[in-house]
Amino acid sequence: GEEVAQTPKHLVRGEGQKAKLYCAPIKGHSYVFWYQQVLKNEFKFLISFQNENVFDETGMPKERFSAKCLPNSPCSLEIQATKLEDSAVYFCASSQSRNSPLHFGNGTRLTVT
Amino acid sequence: KQEVTQIPAALSVPEGENLVLNCSFTDSAIYNLQWFRQDPGKGLTSLLLIQSSQREQTSGRLNASLDKSSGRSTLYIAASQPGDSATYLCAAPQSSSNTGKLIFGQGTTLQVKP
Q1: A45–B contact, CB cutoff 8 A
Q2: Over residues A50-73, mean pLDDT
Q3: Are strands B4-7 and B56-59 parallel, antiparallel or unpaired?
């Protein structure tokens, strides 16, 4: 597709539950990125992929966060045992190359209660 | 380590005015710099991407400049319209290797009054 599609739009989880977010990048884009927006304009990088390979995962809280981009499937970001501080909007973005503009999805709002 | 700063945090102008948004960065070995727009409840829309070898990029009423030596980029919006009201963010890669780890400024929230 011509847009980055993120599902679901909203997700509510009780503390300690698992959350799984999905992202379908734009067709033909080789790079996928996940960002977390906690406060209004504070974006935190989580992880990037080049096709199905992890490119940079230095932003991932390794204990509870994991992500995958498998061929012919939407990419996913999974949070095990969610905590209150995981409440945020999670954005996925894709790009054609490392030097191309990033195209963002509309985000998944995760609320942990 | 790259740090990105934007001023002002908020700006209100009457329709039709030309305006400039500012972005500063600390690491001049910048790979590229992007300007984004975010509307409430939406993701980011890429407006302009300036490569490190470029001095400016233009798209319609938007013009973005890049001055690596001074660590500054500006986004110029000509003849502003109410539809330009949004938050504008600039972002630069954390390092010259550009793994997609962008460092974002805090954004400038623009309101254009009819």
Answers
A1: yes
A2: 93
A3: unpaired
